[in-house]
Amino acid sequence: FMGQPDQQKGKGMANHPPRRLTYGDSKRGLQAPLGQHQHDGSALHQHFRAGQHFDGNIGFAHLADAPRQTTLRYHFIAFLQVDMPGAELKRLDSLAADLRLLLRDKKLRHAGIDREGRGISLKFKDDKGVNALETRASVQPLIERQFPELRLVESGDAATPGLTATLRPEALQKLREYALKQNINTLHNRINELGVAEPVITQQGADRIVVQLPGVEDPAQAKDLLGRTATLEIRMVDETPGALDAALSGSVPFGDELLYERDRDNNQRPILLKKQVVLTGERLTDAQPGFDENQQAAVHLSFDSVGSNIFREVSRNNIGKRMAILLIEKNEAEVVT
What we know:
Helix content is 28%, strand content 34%. The protein is α+β, with helices and mostly antiparallel strands and 337 residues long.
């Protein structure tokens, strides 16, 4: 979006020739005349009221009444597309790892489990007197019970029998809905940093999100904020006696990192975390708001089977100890729990 308002300080609008303000995108090339500049600025104020929208699509706020320097505010509109194919492939990679873990726990041998395109290929072969066809016959109902979102089709031949697993349409639809919901929630949280009074974030079609931000002074800042990528990590808190005091005095223990978290009164307090990452957001399959056993606000996290096993082992070995969730953006880590 481009604008060319009068920004000469200390001069009345009557001293300048009429200007035009261009709004819209470069393809449409829409233009709206500002009208004749009058000394009292009333014509401008009547023609372009604060936050007024044009054709339901583009809007500009506001050109001030005073015949002094004007401040150009933009009605920022962004069209974002969610990477649905990427989300699908990421889910298939996670499911392939889950299948390997399942067959290992059941002591069922295989000749390879890998993602191939938009599916997962499972291969079997005769091993130590165990027939590959019998192994496939045992594995198929096991996967159907444990992973109902997968549709299995037999593949291969008698020598190297196999199975091909793909996501069922209803599972794929659920995955897409979750991806959209997750991105919309993330955008809401980021836009709060801009202090925009009435942001509008809506879904358009199956994989697009439209973001409208009225009254934005710096479109570049808004674009940068919306385009950030973030990662989520779960780490253990180092509660060794004296370790936090040592870190605050400048001697951070080896393998630790000193960060800050916010308490319920929004005050920062130091926290010492292990650098070793327990889990990342790649193992997260769902996150929903709710309440804990004390009816306090909480976020309920769901992991895939690999993540669940890791979380169970870490919890079992660290009973009574704290974990922390970090959100990392632009190499800056923020403790969010």
